[in-house]
Structures are given as structure tokens and as C-alpha cells.
């Protein structure tokens, strides 16, 4: 069984160049502060299962290119493999949104995948601060990287130390977390392994990085881009932080295309900056 929190029948934005149905799977082992789908963190956010998805697809032959398994984190559930197989049998392509927390299950799923959107959130050695496994939190004080970021409705000097409530502990605890086998793991190492699994396959890959200026400095973004390019990533999207839809833990501040180091886009065949 696959616990699903909701289904979007038609989407043009969740799989570039494809018209897809999106199944939002319930449960995620991480607590990223900018998550747009935090309502799906807990497994009990599910309201339906794969049978509703199959019934929808039976009526969408000739209208949809494929299905995107999103979340939450789809790979947190063992049932995702059977669902991907069945979607293929019904004649649809399969796309996946993943945080990369389950490289082993990702490898098992590869034969049934056509496209993957993989989040790479931070340099490998500082990953836990953003992924926050098992409901962990960042340190109470976060320093704004000098020279970037635009505060919405306020203007703080670059380098100012914010008060302790800039990032508050997220709701929920590890006891409500799907896939808790990753909770105490090195999150950066898991994502790096997932990236290597994908790069060794023939599955089309888009890597995405969400950029909030108080979580990632310009140098951090440069490190991420250079590392991705050196490993052979061809498509990278930098996504500006979007405040609407988050838990509100982060201050409402974002970045702009001019903040991206000029040397990064030429490293990729396809580079895109996605505005907030």
C-alpha cells in the first residue's frame, strides 16, 4: 500500500515538459525549514491510497504523459516500488521527486523511472543543518551572508545576528517520522549516494537547490554548483526561497538572479533560476 495525502489530476510544472498527474505521498524523515509540503511530514496525513490513483489513470489515457510521485518523501514507503510498476503497466511514464534520503530504495526503483527531480540542499558537510533529521533544528543564531538577500518589509544590515526566534523548532518529533532509519544518519552522505545512483543510470535527472540567504551563503551555492558539475550533473535549477506555504520558521527573505555567481550557469547544459 502507498499512503497518499492528495492527488493533483493535471500539472504542467512538476515534470518539465510533461503533462503529469501528481501523487503526494505522506511522511518524510526530514524537517527542512522551507518545505512547501510540511503538512505531509507525518504518515497520518494520508487520506487515500494507490487505488484512487489507478482509477484516475484509467480515465486519463491519451491525456497524461505520466505520474509524478511526490511528497512528503515517496521513497519513505516500501509500497512505492509496486505502485511505480503498476503505473508503467497502465501505460504511463513515472517521475519522482525525492530528497535523496533512501539511496537503496531509489536503486530498486530505477528500472521503472523515466525522470527524477533530486533536491541537493547544501554542501555535503553541512547538510544536517537544513535537512534536520528526526526533527532537529539549526542553531538559534543565524548570520545573514553579507551582500545578498532581500528582506520583505524590512531592511537589516548585512552580517547582523538575528534574534534566537528566527528559526524555531519545527512541530513534530521523530516518533511521527516516516523512514526513521535515516534519522540519525549523515544526511549529506545519503544524498550524495543517491546522486551517484542516478548519475550511473540512464534516468533523466534534474537537481534542484532551494536558496534562502540565511541558510546558504553565496560561497555555499558556488560549492554546490561546482560539486554537481564535477560529478557530471547536466541540469541544475536554483530555486529562490518562497515564504508562502512554509511553516513561517524562516524570515521572509529571498534571492534574485543577480545573486548567482556568474561562473556557475556555464557549468551546466541546462541551468535555470526559479524566482520566488
What key attributes describe this structure?
alpha/beta, TIM Barrel, 21% helix, globular, 6 helices, 276 residues, eight-stranded mixed sheet, two-stranded antiparallel sheet
Can you offer a commentary on this structure?
With about 280 residues, this protein is of the alpha/beta class. It has a single domain, classed as TIM Barrel. Helix 3 packs parallel to helix 5. The longest helix has 14 residues. The two termini are about 35 Å apart.
Helix-strand layout with pairing:
Elements: E1 4-11, E2 20-25, H1 50-58, E3 66-71, H2 80-89, E4 93-98, H3 103-109, E5 115-119, H4 128-131, E6 150-151, H5 187-199, E7 204-211, H6 218-231, E8 235-240, E9 253-254, E10 270-274
Parallel strand pairs: 2-3, 3-4, 4-5, 5-7, 7-8, 8-10
Antiparallel strand pairs: 1-2, 6-9
pLDDT < 50 stretches? 135-184
Overall structural class, as computed from helix and strand content, comes to alpha/beta
CA-based shape? globular
Strand element count = 10
How many domains? The number is 1
CATH topology description: TIM Barrel
Main sheet specs: 8 strands, mixed
**CATH evolutionary superfamily:** Aldolase class I
Can you list the strand order of the major beta sheet? 1-2-3-4-5-7-8-10
Query: What fraction of residues sit in β-strands?
Result: 15-25%
- Give the CATH class: Alpha Beta
Query: What order do the helices and strands follow?
Result: EEHEHEHEHEHEHEEE
Report the mean per-residue pLDDT as an integer.
85
CATH architecture assignment: Alpha-Beta Barrel
Percent helix among the residues?
Answer: 10-25%
